[in-house]
Design goal:
Layout lengths: L7 E9 L13 E2 L3 E3 L5 E8 L5 E8 L8 E11 L5 E13 L2 E10 H7 L1 H4 L4 E9 L9 E21 L8 E6 L3 E7 L6 E8 L3 E11 L5 E9 L1 H4 L4 E4 L3 H5 L2 H4 L4 E21 L13 H16 L5 E4 L4 E4 L1 H7 L1 H8 L4 H4 L1 E3 L5 H13 L7 H13 L6
Parallel strand pairs: 1-10, 18-20
Antiparallel strand pairs: 1-9, 2-4, 3-4, 4-5, 5-8, 6-7, 6-9, 10-17, 11-12, 12-13, 13-16, 14-15, 14-17, 18-19
Helix pairs in contact: 6-10, 7-8, 10-11
Length: 404
Amino acid sequence: MMANALAAYNMRWKVENISHCWWLKMGERLESPSFVTDALEGTKWSLRLYPTGENYVSFFLNREENCSGPDVIEICYQLAFLSKDGSVAKERTAAKRKFMKNESWGFSIFERRERVFVTERETFLPEDTLTVQCTLWTTYEKPDESKHLFASTAIKVKRRSFVWKIDKPSTLKSCIRNKFKDNFIDFDLVINEGLDRQNIDVTSFDETIKYISCNTSVIDSKGRKTNYGSKKYFSRDLKEGVLSFMLLSPEMLMEDKSRNFPNDVLSLDFEFVLATVEHFGCRIRYPKLENGVVGEKTQNTAVLIADFKSLYNDGILSDIELRTSTKTFPAHKNILSSRSPVFRGMFSSDMKEKNSGYVDITDFEDDIVHRMLLYVYTDSLEDLQFESASKLYTIADKYLILSL
């Protein structure tokens, strides 16, 4: 089977909270969800971003190892960073390149880190989100039309802390344990007789966690914290399984018992920092508007759509509000979450929108937010002109409403 000479694919990938990638070591990468190009002999690809280089951000196109198609395929590709409005902020195009399976090609010097993260941050990182794009095709001349694919990755930093109070620590006669568990990490705290050994064993952690650090302090008689050590584990370490954090030196604790053991109580303060990388899969967006005609619905579907439209228009049992600069739109978390992985992430994580009861959307006009919600509830578009269609495409891209 030969690759379609007119085939072109455009993959757009959003990396949210990219400033939180500080835990990546130099040479470590962020990788997009993989995507399959059926018309390019079923080959499978991903994008690789290296944001923590010494002076430059590196950007590569990678052909997956577990990939269909021939051993070698020859394509052209173009890599770009996009600005807030979807225009190209930085772009580089490669001539035809042969890709074997499990092979990457791109640009180690794609853009200066200072320009992306500091001097032109508003252009490259609106709302701390880097949007990158890759277009790949087989002919020497780039086709006018492409099949569009979209994916997103969210980097999140979560903090956990707690205090463990131990009575009569200097006269412990046996090993004592304490367990800590939440949605992301489980660990056991162990202190042996005489404080001769203290450690934390991480017994399990969510697969989205890529970095863990623990800072251990003693709270003294005046409520002040004295740092007695910290430990960091990076993505390579986490692949090895059970992790262990050594805690305090008993000699250091005994040097000032009156301060460290007020009322013969040892108060240990633990602060954990967890960095997670969550992917929202890759999907294809097909063009839906042709000559302004929207396909007819069956009668049963039309009734259901009318009910959902009423649910939106009347705000029946709404539990969230979308707020523009001048208007508020009642909505429903379940419906927004089912249509948008971005909204789903807001309502299922520790982001402020989960508990505040509202989502601020101040960068779009009232009419565009209304049209987006109308589509979310009814899967239809009404009286859409070209200018509105362009803005609607932009907001759909922001919230990954991929069917629009």
